[in-house]
Amino acid sequence: MSIQFKSNLDYLKNYLNIARKIKEIVKSFDPNAKVYVFGSVVRGNYTAISDIDILIITSKIEQKYDMMVAIYKELIYAPIELHIITKELYENWYRRFIKPEEIIEI
């Protein structure tokens, strides 16, 4: 069942529920994947035009687009931005820009 709210702000306020639903979908593709939320919703300084940044670390990167389609199909109205990457890309790139206090594992 898809999650629907009345406004962008409602989605942003409920980012943990959105992230949990994304994790459920991702785990159907890769049971070992890690799902995180980062950015303005974690910092608490989001606005009505913000999105929910979701970081997915998977060893099944070849299924990236299938994951994206499944997530966006289920959460069609949610303001989400998906970052589906390998552990290596996280270690070599994303880790430099995401502060430890601004990321939550789901």
Please give a structural write-up:
- Residues 20-98 form the Polymerase nucleotidyl transferase domain.
- Keywords: Transferase.
- This is Nucleotidyltransferase domain-containing protein.
- This protein is α+β, with helices and mostly antiparallel strands and 106 residues long.
- The chain has a single domain (8-105), classed as Beta Polymerase, domain 2.
- It is 44% helix and 19% strand.
- Strands 3-2-1-4 form a 4-stranded mixed beta sheet.
- The chain is globular and about 35 Å long.
Summarize the structure.
This protein is an alpha+beta fold and 106 residues long. It has one domain: 2-Layer Sandwich (Beta Polymerase, domain 2). It has five helices and four strands, in the order ααβαβαβαβ.
Spatial strand arrangement across the major sheet: 3-2-1-4
What is the CATH homologous superfamily assignment?
Answer: Beta Polymerase, domain 2
Q: What number is the mean pLDDT?
A: 95
Return the CATH architecture: 2-Layer Sandwich
The biggest sheet, with number of strands, parallel, antiparallel or mixed sense and barrel status, is: 4 strands, mixed
Secondary structure elements and pairings:
Blueprint: H1 8-13, H2 15-29, E1 34-38, H3 40-43, E2 52-57, H4 64-74, E3 80-85, H5 87-97, E4 103-105
Parallel strand pairs: 2-3
Antiparallel strand pairs: 1-2, 1-4
Keywords:
106 residues, alpha+beta, Beta Polymerase, domain 2, four-stranded mixed beta sheet, 19% strand, globular, NT_sf
